[in-house]
Design goal:
two-stranded antiparallel sheet
């Protein structure tokens, strides 16, 4: 069988001179009017979470419009965990889902591509007139400020990162709440960061020991394994290396938690 090609909305059977308007046929009769047609026009596989939809395109797509928020809400409106968490509660007032969530990726991946610029738009769309003025003032101020590093945009500086990521802050607010001064929205990693010297003895200023170190496990196991009988919990440098917590001097790689 010759390969089917979609050209300007008309499907042609190459080499035979036969053509018919499959999109029109499917539009009039519904997605099930021509079983199997989806394999010729599918832009890619669905993610595991949406795989159960199979070839039922109309679950997400509306003819002549595309993916609409109403179709998404039909399934996700009762997601109490999503709407009750402080960092994700904003979904209750989102007018469009496709800005951050995309399907049909190859290979299939988590359908989340955070567009942080959209957050400000979302905030403005559901805000009162007075709040919109304040938001626009914040955006204008951010645009006038020089960016602290090339991995952040001026529009992203208008966001309050800590309002969503406070529970993920490994610095425990010791560095303040201006995450964008060091981090980007694409990754938390900072290429310019250089860990203090391996000879540093101030590890506890930034790092806290695991709960087991404050129990009998620290005395009965941890100190004996490291061979440091007189170490305190805050003496991280005596038992650990800076390249990995599990790299114990004179012992090597050791993971016992």
């Amino acid at each position: 069988m010759k390969k089917l090609e979609v050209i300007y909305g008309v499907v042609t059977l190459g080499g035979l001179g036969f053509a018919f308007s499959l999109p029109l046929f499917v539009h009039r009769g519904g997605a099930d009017a021509a079983p199997g047609w989806q394999e010729f026009v599918s832009p890619g596989p669905l993610t595991e979470a949406h795989a159960f939809l199979g070839n039922d395109c109309t679950s997400c797509h509306t003819p002549h419009i595309g993916v609409t928020a109403s179709n998404c809400i039909a399934c996700h409106a009762n997601d109490e965990e999503l709407l009750s968490q402080p960092e994700t509660a904003f979904h209750a007032s989102v007018g469009s889902c496709v800005g951050c969530h995309a399907e049909h990726q190859s290979p299939p991946a988590t359908p989340t591509a955070m567009d942080h610029d959209l957050f400000v738009e979302i905030a403005q769309s559901g805000a009162s007139n007075d709040a919109q003025v304040i938001i626009e003032s914040i955006r204008a101020h951010a645009r006038a400020m020089p960016t602290p590093h090339p991995r952040i945009s001026s529009s992203e500086l208008a966001l309050d990162c800590a309002s969503c990521h406070a529970n993920e802050d490994p610095h425990r607010t010791l560095f303040g709440t201006s995450c964008a001064s060091c981090h980007s929205t694409l990754t938390w990693n900072i290429p310019e960061y250089r860990h203090p010297s391996p000879m540093s003895m101030n590890c506890a200023q930034c790092h806290s020991a695991p709960p087991s170190h404050y129990m009998g496990h620290f005395k009965m196991v941890s100190k004996r394994v490291a061979g440091i009988e007189h170490a305190e919990v805050t003496d991280c440098f005596k038992c650990h290396r800076t390249n990995s917590w599990n790299e114990i001097p004179r012992i090597g790689w050791y993971k016992h938690h």
